Each structure stands twice: as structure tokens, then as C-alpha cells.
Amino acid sequence: MIKIYGVSDDLIEFRGHYNDEISIYDKPLQIEFSDGTIIEIEYAPGDVGAIWKIKIICEGDGIESFVECTDENAQIYSDILTMCDGVYSEQLEKICTEGE
What we know:
By secondary structure, the chain is mainly β. The protein has one helix and eight strands. It starts with a strand and ends with a helix.
């Protein structure tokens, strides 16, 4: 399982198979998964307010859940994507092991 969401205005959190965070500021991050899913995550794109948005560019069969955030005052002001067990991302593997 991989859970992805944003915090603050510059951090993307990964929980589950990967437990790490990366700093992304003022630009989107595109992530590809082994099931064919491709997402783009970005803080406050367009006129959505101060919310982390996850755009599903290509939907594979490994998405467990997707919760859309519409309230910038919510405790977690981010869309939250959870990928099923067994789905992985070579890109995240590289990002999350660079700091070790």
C-alpha cells in the first residue's frame, strides 16, 4: 500500500510501502506506478486555493482509494491517493532511497 498526500506548502508525504517525504515547491511532480497509473501532484494549482491536488492522468487498476479535498481549512488540506498492496513505483523507490 502506498498513501500519497501533501502537507505544508512544499512537502509530499509517502506512507505504507514507502515512508518518506520530499520537498517540491512551485512545480508539479509526476509519478508513474507499476499498474499503469500516472499522477501529478501540485500545491495550489490554478484557482483551487491552498490545497494539494492530485490529478490522475492515467488510471490503472491499482488505485485503492482517492479522496478529494475541497476545503483549504481542513486538517489535511490535500487530496489523498492510496494505491493497493503490490503496486510500486521505481521512481519513488529511487527518490525514497537517495537519502539513505
